[in-house]
């Protein structure tokens, strides 16, 4: 269904199924292969005010790309896209209770002369993308209660490195607010991607196996981003690949792809609340010495004015390296060239590095952090810190260093923290308020190693003063609990 230059459009309760893209016409003849044609479910282009509700799009397939025909170097055909809903250059869109499933991008074309006449020529193109909902150059969009599942990027038959990208929701060149709320669910081979504008993303769950190294939820080049109640989890085995919970095996000698749960790039104002990332894994290293693919629960790079509240990252694992390759690293929270940062109520459990502050990050306030079962806790080896306050936190089962800061940085100011089963508490420029530190106390409950145990010494052991205690009881005499549940009604407090 294609509607162009329309206004006041209402599309409801339609079922569109078993669509195959038409013949591609993007080739140039000679040495150039043509791209495969794309398949669309519903397309609205150049529209004003549209409502799409309770529609179902099922089984779209992009056409395979065509082979290069000559012996000279040139591009070969890319697979056609499979796009459930395509909204381009529009204003005023309500998208609610729609379902997209079973989209497959076209296979990439191949160059039959690759090995014989031109070893340096590209052997194949890129597989076609699979996109659940595409919003390009649109504004004033509200999406709620939509479901996207079963997307698969087109295959690239030669090395596997050109598999088509997969986007459950792709927003490009958007302006003004894009609001996604009320339980939008993404399952299988999918992630959410925004480029530009003001982003509001609420109540979204992403799970499955994206064949890409971007991430579960990605926002870049935006004026502002407000993300809340986000869950990214459970990357599962992908068809045609060795067991890789996220990412792909690297080509010969290359590392596996990096897995990102939530990734923000070049956003001028950021607020993240109630973000959950768990059970992700990087791609396996390629044969011939490829390293294991890293995994990062939450990464912010080149962002300004960042506020994080209630972020929980658990059970991340780097991909398996080739026997001759280097192991990857699983990082809970990573910040690069991002300032200033205020983060409260952060949990990092069962990762290699809990929090990593990279280059260009210099103003940080971190409170109510729980670090459990890690190699290293808070690491600032590459940062250029001027101010770093760390308080009201728990470090438990750390086999390396709990807090590590480069000697040339301004010191980490550490207060009201507990160290339990920690190999090395601090290294580098760290100033400790010794009178506020607990050592050797088993703060966390033995059953889950996350909540505070009954009678724990970490109850009411944090910063005093009602202004810090949030939802905890206690009035003016309140003392904050340590760890990521401090200041919340969920936390266990002394009677």
Characterize the biggest β-sheet.
21 strands, parallel, barrel
| Total count of helical runs of at least 4 residues | 1
* Secondary structure: number of strands: 30
Regarding quaternary structure, what we see is single chain
Rg (CA only): 25 Å
Uncertain stretches: 25-33, 236-250
Roughly how many Å apart are the termini? 63 Å
Structural class determined from secondary elements: mainly beta
Q: Can you tell me about this structure?
A:
With 495 residues, the chain is mainly β. It has a domain at 337-451. 1% of the residues lie in helices and 50% in strands. It has a 21-stranded parallel β-barrel. The longest helix is centred in the last third of the chain and has 4 residues, at 466-469. The N and C termini lie far apart (63 Å). Mean pLDDT is 80; it is low at 25-33 and 236-250.
What attributes characterize this protein structure?
globular, mainly beta, 495 residues
Quick take:
The model is unreliable at 25-33 and 236-250 (pLDDT under 50). The longest helix is centred in the last third of the chain and has 4 residues, at 466-469.
Layout: helices, strands, pairs:
Layout: E1 2-12, E2 15-20, E3 39-53, E4 56-61, E5 82-88, E6 91-96, E7 99-104, E8 130-136, E9 139-144, E10 147-152, E11 166-172, E12 175-181, E13 184-187, E14 192-195, E15 198-207, E16 217-222, E17 224-233, E18 259-267, E19 270-281, E20 295-301, E21 304-317, E22 330-336, E23 339-349, E24 353-357, E25 363-374, E26 376-380, E27 387-405, E28 412-428, E29 430-432, E30 438-439, H1 466-469
């Amino acid at each position: 269904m294609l509607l162009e230059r329309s206004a006041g459009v209402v599309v409801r309760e339609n079922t569109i199924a078993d669509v195959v893209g038409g013949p591609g016409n993007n080739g140039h003849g000679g040495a150039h292969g043509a791209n495969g044609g794309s398949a669309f479910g519903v397309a609205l282009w150049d529209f004003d005010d549209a409502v799409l509700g309770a529609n179902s799009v099922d089984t779209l397939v992009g056409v395979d790309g065509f082979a290069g025909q000559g012996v000279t170097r040139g591009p070969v055909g890319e697979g056609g896209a499979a796009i459930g809903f395509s909204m381009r250059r529009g204003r005023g869109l309500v998208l609610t209770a729609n379902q997209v499933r079973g989209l497959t991008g076209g296979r990439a074309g191949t160059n039959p002369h690759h090995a014989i006449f031109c070893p340096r020529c590209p052997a194949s193109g890129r597989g076609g993308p699979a996109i659940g909902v595409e919003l390009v150059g649109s504004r004033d969009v509200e999406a709620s209660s939509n479901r996207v599942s079963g997307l698969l990027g087109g295959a690239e038959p030669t090395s596997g490195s050109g598999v088509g990208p997969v986007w459950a929701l792709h927003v490009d060149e958007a302006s003004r607010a894009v609001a996604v709320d009320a339980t939008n669910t993404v399952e299988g081979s999918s992630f959410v991607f925004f480029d530009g504008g003001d982003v509001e993303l609420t109540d979204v769950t992403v799970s499955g196996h994206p064949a890409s190294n971007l991430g579960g939820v990605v926002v870049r080049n935006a004026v502002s981003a407000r993300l809340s109640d986000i869950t990214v989890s459970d990357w599962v085995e992908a068809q045609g690949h060795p067991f890789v919970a996220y990412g792909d095996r690297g080509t010969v000698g290359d590392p596996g792809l990096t897995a990102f749960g939530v990734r923000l790039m070049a956003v001028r104002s950021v607020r993240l609340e109630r973000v959950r990332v768990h059970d992700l894994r990087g791609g396996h290293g390629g044969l011939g010495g490829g390293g294991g693919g890293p995994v990062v629960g939450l990464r912010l790079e080149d962002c300004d004015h960042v506020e994080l509240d209630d972020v929980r990252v658990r059970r991340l694992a780097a991909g398996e390296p080739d026997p001759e390759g280097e192991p990857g690293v699983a990082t809970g929270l990573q910040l690069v060239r991002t300032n200033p940062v205020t983060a409260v109520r952060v949990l990092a459990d069962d990762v290699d590095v809990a929090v990593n502050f990279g280059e260009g990050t210099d103003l940080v306030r971190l409170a109510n952090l729980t670090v459990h079962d890690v190699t290293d806790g808070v690491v600032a080896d590459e940062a250029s810190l001027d101010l770093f306050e760390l308080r009201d936190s728990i470090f438990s089962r750390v086999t390396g260093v709990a807090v590590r800061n480069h000697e040339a940085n301004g010191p980490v100011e550490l207060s009201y923290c507990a160290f339990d089963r920690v190999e090395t508490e601090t290294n580098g420029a760290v100033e400790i308020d010794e009178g506020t530190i607990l050592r050797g106390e088993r703060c966390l409950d033995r059953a889950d190693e996350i909540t505070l145990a009954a009678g724990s010494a970490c109850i009411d052991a944090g910063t005093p003063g009602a202004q810090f205690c949030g939802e905890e009881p206690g009035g003016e005499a309140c003392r904050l609990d340590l760890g990521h549940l401090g200041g919340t009604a969920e936390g266990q407090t002394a009677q």
